[in-house]
Design goal:
Structural class: alpha/beta
Number of strands: 16
Strand content: 15-25%
Distance between the termini: 18 Å
Bound molecules: zinc ion
CATH architecture of the largest domain: 3-Layer(aba) Sandwich
Radius of gyration: 23 Å
Number of helices: 10
CATH topology of the largest domain: Aminopeptidase
Largest sheet: 6 strands, mixed
Helix content: 25-40%
Order of helices and strands: HHEEEHEEHEHEEEHEEHEHEHEEEH
Number of domains: 2
Oligomer: single chain
């Protein structure tokens, strides 16, 4: 059944080209160069490629379709940006060592992007997409919470029957059908400065107030339900002998259950309305940046189809729920059956040892092809 020809040498050559482009979210020239690669490839296949410029601080986002009917059987999602700064490629360019390919963005998620192209190109070559409508969405701001592309991704999701996300498979080979939602908040506290030795009673400590916030928020972490709150960055004060007139914190919230977000936001509202330290004023900005991806009945049906295909291809399929966000959450939150982690197997995302397993590229290419075919036929 998996008689499709796969040219691993060509794939690795294309991958080397893509990895050796610095394409951090805040480097539009880089993501534009990655976009250019796919623009050319899909145009050459006769597909329509639209380039959206949602903001000048990020590169283009690509909307690629093989039909003009505006409704899609499958939406394939991926991001062209990485978390790495300019110059990372010069420090550690694409490298192959034994069964691993290394380089910035290889796992998160340039190999996944490339697998989309290889799978669709081979399916089209065999005439297997004639009755299937496909939309591909490649954004350039996923690593900064898809702040400019979210609405567009949601619009495309609503036009699609299924969404497949090509983030890498987990290091153990598992796919992903559940992800936590993400919330991000900034807290600013304003107090009154005073000499801590001469007249401390005239001061109002912003740091003291922030301490109440930190304890109240961390107290809401609940590993049973999967809700975690992390005050990851704090700053404040001017000198050791001055009562702090300002303090700031950044908060990361992860959750499966939306009701728990409301409880946590209520704690923050209460602290704003009733500061625990007299004379201070606090302000909160931010909110939920990604909804949770929780599998529906239809998602679970798709999962069992994927397991069946994996069985036929000799790939054991397992499922992971992860606290990491992805754009799949936008589709899943709209009720579209969504599966993530369909890229090659790898690990080490966002770090210097990021890799994919070369021997996993071809089997996962076949898996993706078969999933698309199955959706098309049913
Ligand atoms: Zn990613």
């Amino acid at each position: 059944m998996n008689n499709a020809v796969f040219d691993l040498a060509a794939y690795l050559k294309d991958l080397e080209y893509l990895i050796n482009i610095d394409s951090g979210s805040n480097y539009p020239e880089g993501t534009a160069q990655v976009a250019q690669f796919f623009h050319q490839k899909f145009s050459a296949m006769g597909w329509q490629v639209r380039s959206h410029n949602f903001d000048s601080s990020i590169g283009p986002c690509l909307e690629i379709v093989n039909t003009d009917q505006g409704q899609y059987d499958v939406l394939l999602m991926g991001h062209m940006d990485t978390v790495f700064k300019i110059g990372t490629v010069a420090e550690r360019p694409f490298m192959v060592k034994e069964d691993k390919a290394f380089g910035p963005g290889v796992n998160d998620m340039k190999a996944g992007l490339l697998s989309i192209y290889y799978a669709l190109s081979s399916l089209q070559h065999e005439g297997k997409l004639n009755q299937t409508s496909i939309c591909i969405a490649f954004n350039s701001d996923e690593e900064i919470s898809s702040m400019f592309s979210r609405t567009w991704l949601e619009e495309l999701s609503e036009k699609s029957r299924y969404a497949l996300v090509l983030e890498a498979a987990r290091a153990n080979g598992n796919l992903v059908n559940q992800r936590k939602g993400v919330g991000r908040y900034k807290i600013e506290v304003f107090g009154v400065a005073a000499h801590s030795g001469v007249d401390p009673e005239k001061g109002c400590s912003a740091i003291q107030e922030l301490a109440h916030w930190i304890l109240a928020l961390h107290n809401k972490t609940n590993y049973q339900t999967g809700t975690t709150v992390n005050v990851g960055v704090i700053s404040g004060g001017t000198a050791v002998n001055v009562v702090a007139d300002q303090a700031k914190a950044e908060v990361d919230l992860r959750f499966y259950n939306v009701a728990e977000v409301e409880a946590i936001e209520n704690i923050m509202k209460d602290l704003v309305a009733h500061p625990r330290t007299s004379g201070v004023i606090a302000k909160v900005t931010g909110g939920v940046t990604r909804p949770p991806m929780n599998p529906t009945e239809k998602t679970l049906q798709l999962c069992s189809v994927v397991e069946q295909i994996g069985c036929e291809l000799g790939i054991e399929i397992g499922w992971t729920a992860t606290g990491g966000g992805s754009d799949g959450s936008f589709a899943a939150n709209l009720g579209i059956p969504t599966i993530d982690g369909l890229g090659p197997v790898g690990g080490g995302s966002h770090g210097a040892n990021e890799y994919i397993l070369i021997h996993s590229i071809e089997p996962r290419f076949h898996l993706l092809r078969r999933i698309i075919q199955d959706i098309a036929e049913n």
